[in-house]
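Expect sequence, tokenised fold; for instance:
***
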Amino acid sequence: MQFTLAELAIKFGCELKGNPETEVSSIATLSSALAGDISFFANKKYKQQLIDTNATAVILREADLENCSVAALICENPYATYARIAQLIYPIKSAVGVHSSAVVNVDLPKSVSVGANAVIELGAQLGENVSIGANCFVGENTHIGAGSILDANVTIRHDVLIGEDCYFHPGVVIGSDGFGQAPDVDGYVKIPQVGRVVIGNAVEIGANTTVDRGTLDDTIIEDGVKLDNLIQVAHNVHIGAHTVIAATVGISGSTKIGKRCLIGGRAGFVGHIEICDDVIINSSTVVTSNITEKGHYGGTGGFPHQAAKDWTRNVAQFRRINNLAKRVKELEKK
């Protein structure tokens, strides 16, 4: 899609340097951009690429304008503005209309799209402009808010509540049974999982991520949460608004994670703990107890989490252990 710089400046609240009628139709990096491309500058590491770029225009801060010889959109947060412009130039493609092979057991708004072989069960309610991809399943009495998109092969079980403007990538499963087994003398007895999954607005969930329904109470994901691929969210987990979680994280049952947390890939959480707001968890950290103070935490290799500065200092000491052991032996001999 093609837009003038004036259109982009007005829409996204930018100051414009250059010809307002100049058009851009694609986005590229500073080093690879050509005529018709718009790029962005948000990292001083790429200053020389900004100086040398062949882009038609660059999104940047006012302080960096002196190094830009092409047209510019000036704003406080170039990276976020780039993301919004990218959404405009590259809109998400979704199904159009209701495919003849879809099995739809409810009345749908005319603006809803349903892809090939999708199934929508009795009692489901879909808002305006919802898009259901090919081979999706939407269970009984599930509600999906306006503007939400299910990509291909998404499974939404019964009694799930999904807010507006959500996006679920291929292979997502929402509302499968939580892992509840009661031990008995001759094995295990399955515990029925009768809670729901409740998801807020503007939530994005990555490919093959699973969110289990609650055992009795609900599993809850609040507004603006972003989940990467291959994440396991167990029953009765509660994730606070605008928390971002990277790939392959495992969250055990009844864990409560606060708002605006940043969780690195492969981190793990034992069950029945609480993480307060504004916590950063390093990649591969094992969280074994409550975190009650906001801050940056790390730990790996089976060690419990600790403040990131302490973990970094301890890792440095681990590297000296062999030499320290030799010195202790020499001192013991003396």
Observations:
- The chain has a mean pLDDT of 95.
- The chain has two domains: 3-89, 103-313.
- The domain at 103-313 is CATH 2.160.10.10 (UDP N-Acetylglucosamine Acyltransferase; domain 1).
